[in-house]
Structure prediction request, 562 residues.
Amino acid sequence: MAFLSNAVLILFIVTATVVLLPQLVGSLVGLVFRGVGWLIRRRTRSRREYVIARARSEEEEGRAPRAKDSTHSLARNQEDEDWEKVDNTSGVKTASSSESGGGEDAEWDGIIGFFHPFCNAGGGGERVLWEAVRATQKRWPKAICAIYTGDHEVNKATMLERVETRFNIHLHAPTVVLLYLTTRKYVVASSYPYMTLLGQSLGSLVVAYDAFTLLVPDVFVDTMGYAFTLAFSKWLFPAVPTGAYVHYPTISTDMLASLDDQSGVQGINSGAGKGLKGAVKRRYWQLFARLYGWVGRHVDVVMCNSSWTSAHIRKLWGNSKSADNGEGDGTAASPAVVFPPTAVSELESTIEVTAESERTRRPVLLYIAQFRPEKNHPLVLRSFARFLQERAKDPANADKPPPQLVLIGSVRHASPDETHIYNLRLLAHELRIRDNTTFLCDASWPAVLSHLSTASVGVNAMWNEHFGICVVEYQAAGLICVTHDSGGPREDIVVDLGDGATGFRAETEEQFAGAFEAALALPETEKVAMRQRARRSALRFTEEEFSRKWLRQVEKLVKASK
Ligand SMILES: *[C@@H]1O[C@H](CO)[C@@H](O)[C@H](O)[C@H]1NC(C)=O
Ligand SMILES: *[C@@H]1O[C@H](CO)[C@@H](O)[C@H](O)[C@H]1NC(C)=O
Ligand SMILES: *[C@@H]1O[C@H](CO)[C@@H](O)[C@H](O)[C@H]1NC(C)=O
Prediction:
């Protein structure tokens, strides 16, 4: 009897161990991470105090009237005071108009860490970063925006100056802090000739560790797509809320699908899924996608730069299959779509779209895109040739001005682009549209602007363009868009906002040719109306819209940090 009960007891203990061991190990590992986090916090406490003290003293210096004021620094002071006025009112306004918080949290004075190792790159991702910093500063004037960067060669003053000239974004210097990483090389793709995805992701952990040993923020945001750093932060500092602004999923379901593609238009991995090598690659990608999903579920607030990105992140990070297509509530299962700010306002103010300006528009189809294979210029050339043929059949068109196709793009010197554009010219010749097609390489902005104001139709033929800033620019300039029926143009840009179409979408050569005809043949009043609708639609992508949506999400993080 005693033997039996002993056996039952042992059995019970063994079962309990088998069931509970993984959990035990899990919580033990969790504890170790927390311990490390605690140590890091302790070791960096004095730096944190120093950073805060310096920001406050810079603030004081900026405010105190200086004895030997030159007119220049006077002007500067004035500007800083203006800045304060603006930030005060806007801060209070945002606070009271937001559903979440009251006006008092404009007083929040924590540190927001932005993980952006390449903050001097000057691309679209950096515009997002600096615009986000500006919005954050205005909303919480006392908060400190700490940017983790590897750009050692630029100091803060130079960086802020560059931000001002490059993006026309003026930041309030005292509350911006640059923290310099020494380990950035671990996230550079070329460091990992094999297994780049995994290598870069694990490498980002080293860089994140570097970042935390510089300073532990109160809110941690990644704006470059290193999601692994956010999960790492959660393990080390469970109390620090994390946010991700995702430009592009590290791995996408399209990538997996493209392994099976035969047509060759789906990017560099098109059709690479054959053979043993292909099978290994597929398995590796699938496993990586699962790891990426696990990591992503640790992030508190998720923002995506487009519906395309959002759809992929939802698939990879969310555990529900719910396919809601709303704006998203900012969780991994339903990321908030926060479109990046674009230079819509400049186009709006320089280009007129009225019945009068319609007379200066010519029957020109404009395609602005780099001369690269994925932009699919051949499709545009073929469709244009077909459109001209069809059009020539109708004698009524004989005395109308002949349509023109203008291709504007940059060509990277000494790259395959140069052969590519040569082949495109050859194709235009073969299609007998050489006299009707213009290639413009590396046009200046004023030249582009002039084409945007006189052309009639804007074209984009890329399959699955993730967004298409140039399509937004077409719309802001009042062009009627004819774009590929996929990706960002389909989901976000060339959409009907309830008052009618803002352009045409096509997939095949026939459809593109038909859309060119339809766009150019619109009656004049409808043409102008469509241009104006397109322009209104582009207003969704302004800097103000970006700030509003960004703050709505970051407010949650700030609230959670208290
Ligand atoms: C905002 O401005 C008002 C009056 O202009 C002032 O009383 C208040 O202290 C300011 N608030 C902050 C946070 O600076
Ligand atoms: C989102 O980011 C990706 C990668 O940088 C870019 O290709 C895409 O155009 C961006 N989307 C928007 C809306 O800017
Ligand atoms: C192409 O351009 C040439 C020269 O401008 C013009 O004569 C010709 O009619 C155009 N072709 C078509 C099909 O419109």
Observations:
- Residues 67-102 have pLDDT under 50 and may be disordered.
